[in-house]
Design brief:
This is Sodium:solute symporter family protein. Its main location: membrane. With 596 residues, the chain is an all-alpha fold. It has a domain of 382 residues: Sodium/glucose cotransporter. Helices cover 75% and strands 0% of the residues. The protein is globular. The termini are far apart.
Length: 596
């Protein structure tokens, strides 16, 4: 596809506006590291929430969502549990409160509030820095591969996808490095508006061009059903045989087992808290703990409807109008190209430019968030702490800029070596984050867990997750998760029991400040002995109920726009009722009871 000149003009104006905004606010952002990375903790919670939602509206993830919606239909709403998407529910209910109460800048710095400042705490900080850098590089490679495949469909110079990705990366990195957190948040507000308008327009176009009868003729039985059994129950034989091949290569024949594994892994991972990336950064940037929780709740509320309206719109357009083309290519068809091909064929001039600008905005949001979140660990937790603690604020900011550039270069190099968005995504969310769960779950909920337990738990999980793709290249990361969890858990428990407990005063200070629930009885007794009127105000039972309701609420928000686009009105009505009822319950039992 060669874009119309008007579409190219829309894209160019958007890019120029974004870069100009980043430069305009650069001076304010670069006063010191707190301003550069956390916006001085002065940004409103709703702006942080919309920014976080925009950052999650990434182009590579959207391409993957269109692919799985095409192949699995309504059952695809369960598949983002692999990330897991419901970690936002755990954050909004209680974990954002706990994390923000620490009042620190990074996840590594947070460890001092939990483990003190001894040798073990230093080892913990080093392993978190390593994890933050490795995961950031993985996200950069993920974004690189997605934007290259996307851009190669539209632009007229017949370059390779990696060449297009390299050029777009250069532009995006420039505005991120210049403006820091202020630049990221303010430009993401603009980007979210563009994406929402474009997404709704795509859904409306699909509803006007595709009827429910056409969808039914193009899909196998069960495609439009949300519920599932042990088997996926979808047979594309005769309709699109290559879709059956994709189901087999995804390892999704035993769909029920895979969803159970996603739930098991997802709950443990969610209870462990956010990994050291842009999600954690926005929580730490909130003005207060209460605003951090509200910000996390807003992400789900504003993100799902526009994103899935666009996903469903492109899915049904591709199903009905691209079937013969896909069938003709057979096993050679790359399902990850569904999104850009659908845009090139079915979106009118003008709107195509707006939509591509919006999706480029989504890419920029993801890259900006990842690039801005990771360097602070190197600068604040390594350089400032060990090499130059008394440097001028501008020195730290300049070094942060350099570290951001280095990470982008390494991530791009990794992106050149990898071939599939799905492979990168499965490795990041299945293996790498799988090795993160045990140690970070224990740090919140078990008082005896100490710094050495955290270090050995994280190291064993991190090493295992890095070695896994080399030793077992054909093993699905979800199937490897129990082994990763066991290794990390063994490292955590053995490292803890073979070394002394943390000083009781450190534990008391942490418990008094954060007020977690779990196995904290000895520490709670000590705090009450020191401060008889202390009220921890913990309510695990209420939190558990809110999490269950929140997961239903989130699932309804995902399914609602898909039912709308495929025009299944009874199911749309029931899903809307569930979304409204669960929203009312969460307002009464969560939002109205939030405390700093």
């Amino acid at each position: 596809m060669t874009l119309h000149w008007f579409d190219l003009l829309v894209i160019a104006l958007y890019m120029a506006g974004t870069l100009g905004l980043g430069f305009y606010i650069a001076n304010k952002a670069r006063q010191d590291m707190n301003a550069y990375f956390l916006g001085g903790k002065k940004i409103p919670w709703w702006a942080l929430g919309v920014s976080n939602a925009s950052g999650m509206f990434d182009i590579a993830g959207t391409m993957w969502l269109v692919t799985v919606c095409f192949i699995y239909g309504l059952k695809s709403v369960w598949l983002p549990w692999v990330w897991p998407i419901f970690n936002q529910v755990f954050l909004m209910v209680y974990l954002s409160l706990w994390l923000r109460r620490s009042n620190v800048m990074t996840g590594a710095e947070w460890l001092e509030t939990r483990f003190g400042k001894g040798r073990g705490a230093e080892l913990c900080q080093w392993v978190v820095v390593i994890f933050a850098i490795v995961s950031a590089i993985g996200f950069i490679a993920y974004a690189f591969k997605g934007i290259g495949k996307f851009a190669a469909i539209f632009f007229p110079w017949h370059w390779s996808p990696d060449t297009y990705a390299l050029l777009i990366f250069a532009f995006t990195t420039l505005y991120v490095l210049k403006g820091g957190m202020y630049s990221v948040v303010l430009t993401e507000l603009l980007q979210f508006v563009i994406m929402t308008l474009a997404a709704v327009a795509v859904g409306v176009i699909a509803m006007s061009l595709v009827s429910p009868e056409q969808i039914q003729q193009a899909t196998p039985n069960g495609w439009d059903q949300l519920w599932f059994g042990w088997q996926v129950g979808l047979d594309w034989q005769g309709l699109l045989d290559s879709a059956n091949d994709r189901i087999q290569s995804d390892g999704m024949e035993l769909f029920g087992l895979m969803i159970m594994m996603m739930l098991f892994k997802g709950v443990l991972f969610s209870m462990a808290g956010p990994v050291p990336n842009y999600d954690m950064q926005r929580i730490l940037a909130a003005k207060t703990p209460k605003e951090a929780a509200k910000m996390s709740g807003l992400v789900s509320l504003v993100m799902f409807f526009p994103r899935y309206m666009m996903v469903a719109g492109f899915t049904v357009l591709a199903l009905v109008y691209m079937g013969p083309e896909i069938k003709a290519q057979g096993q050679n068809f790359d399902f990850e190209q569904l999104l850009p091909i659908a845009i090139s064929q079915y979106v009118p001039v003008g709107l195509a430019g707006l939509l591509i600008a919006g999706l480029l905005a989504a890419f920029m949001s993801t890259l900006a968030a990842s690039v801005n979140a990771a360097p602070v660990y190197l600068v604040n937790d390594v350089y400032k702490k060990y090499f130059n603690p008394n440097a001028e604020a501008k020195t730290y900011v300049r070094l942060s800029t350099l570290m951001s550039l280095v990470l982008v270069v390494i991530g791009v190099g990794m992106g050149f070596m990898l071939s599939s968005i799905n492979n990168i995504m499965q490795w990041i969310f299945g293996a790498l984050f799988g090795g993160y769960a045990a140690a970070n779950l224990l740090k919140w909920h078990w008082w005896r867990f100490n710094a050495y337990g955290y270090f050995w738990g994280m190291m064993s999980g991190l090493v295992a997750s890095l070695v896994l793709p080399l030793l077992l290249p054909d093993t699905h990361p979800l199937y490897a998760f129990p082994a990763l969890l066991a290794l990390s858990l063994a490292g955590s428990v053995l490292g803890t029991l073979m070394t002394p407990a943390e000083p009781m005063q450190v534990l008391c200070d942490f418990y008094r400040q954060v007020r977690p629930w779990g196995f904290w009885a000895p520490v709670k007794q000590q705090v009450l002995a020191q401060q008889p009127d202390f009220d921890p105000d913990t309510h695990p039972g209420r939190d558990a109920i809110n999490i269950l309701v929140g997961m239903v609420w989130q699932l309804a928000l995902v399914a609602l726009p898909i039912y709308l686009v495929i025009q299944q009105w009874p199911e749309f009505g029931w899903t809307l009722a569930v979304a409204l009822l669960s929203s009312w319950f969460l307002k009464k039992n969560w939002l109205d009871k939030l405390k700093d």
